[in-house]
Amino acid sequence: MLPDFPRVKQHIRDTSSRLVRELIKKHPTLGQIRTRHVFEGNRTAIQDATSKRDTPLERVGISVPLDRRTIIEKGEAAVFEQVPVIAAQMIDSQVEMLRRGVDAAVEHAGNAVHAAGRPFSQDLYLEMLHKVQLQFDDDGRPSIPSLFHPDPAFQARMEARLSEWMQDPTFRDRIEAAITKQRQDWNDRESNRKLVD
Q1: Mean pLDDT score of the chain, rounded to an integer?
Q2: Is 52 or 187 the better-scoring residue by pLDDT?
Q3: Who's near 55: CB < 8 A, 6+ residues apart?
Q4: Structure confidence at residue 62 (pLDDT)
Q5: Where are the alpha helices (DSSP H) in 110-151?
Q6: Among 20, 67, 89, 173, which residue's Cβ finds the most Cβ atoms within 10 Å?
Q7: What is the pTM of this model?
Q8: DSSP labels, 64-92
């Protein structure tokens, strides 16, 4: 019978998992998303005022082949060297799940904007801003949704372009007009909301 080293294996598993999570948190989009552990069950549910949507949990697994000779030569370093590869594959899987989830959510809510081949432009951004329901804090400041694209390089270009556009007073005025309309809609919704004792 071959010897087993449960404490060593536990250390390698815990350390490599922590390192992978740390790399995932550095991703510009995934790092902003709060996570929580789901210890049992096979689905989650999102409920709003009008509907409830069940979402099955998806299994994400990364296969990392390690041959016996490498493990004997390098020990735990053989596993830790694979951490960046594992993290990159996990990031790709999670970004794809996020993209599918966002697509499903905006289609369900009816606020999807299909560019239909149009390039990202001021008009397209304003169209998106008109479609979403903005939330406002107690001081009337809007919570404007972040831009998201599965390709981080493309997302960075969109954010840079939006930042450029914000220097244009005409564009800022159009944004402020959209926010003012949204604020009025928000106030109307809030004033018509039924309070529960």
Answers
A1: 85
A2: 187
A3: 43, 44, 45, 46, 101
A4: 81
A5: 122-131
A6: 20
A7: 0.71
A8: ----HHHHHHHTTHHHHTTHHHHHHHHHH
Side-chain-side CA neighbours of residue 149 (13 Å):
10
**With 0-12 CB in 10 A as exposed, 13-18 as middle and 19+ as buried, what is 79?**
buried
Under 8 Å between Cβ of 131 and 137:
no
**Angle (CA) 164 170 117, round 5°:** 60
Q: Is 142 helix (H, G, I), strand (E, B) or coil?
A: strand
- pLDDT of res. 123: 92
Q: Write down the domain spans for the chain.
A: 6-109, 122-192
Place of tokens 């809030």: 190
* 173 neighbors 126 (Cβ within 8 angstroms): no
Phi first, then psi, for residue 161 (nearest 5°) are: -65, -45
Tokens 């599918």, located at residue: 100
- Single-letter amino acid, residue 28: P
Residue carrying the six token digits 């087993």: 4
